[in-house]
Amino acid sequence: MPKDKSMRVIVVGCGRLGSYLADRLSSAGHQVVAIDSQDQAFEALSPEFSGFRLEGDATEFDVLRQANIASADMVIVATHNDNINLLVSQVAKRLFNVPRVVARVFEPERQMTYRDLGIDTVCPVTMVGEQVLASVTDMSPDMEQG
Fold it and tell me: CATH number of the domain at 8-145, please?
């Protein structure tokens, strides 16, 4: 999608990751709806957040419809629960035909399941693990002598 085209993005889960993404996407000029089941979660959004806040359970169709999911270009699911992330991702992809769905996955073994369903994943465990392994195996010569 061209950089100058505004996207409609729904971010489910407004914790540290969800609020960070919602803020960044909003400041880049995209239309963002942040959904969380806890009203106080929206306090993590910056004062500059120009999107919409929707308190509700994203596993409920009515909440997704209120967010206008049928017209979303992308849904990012970043709750703290893999089962909720998988459910909401599948609903967005299969029932509402959202073109791009990205879900946070905590259990690395689940990544292939999501990918088989056409859902992009981000797994913090895998990402950090790979970074740590790269830093250990790419030690400078000075460190290897120590």
Answer: 3.40.50.720
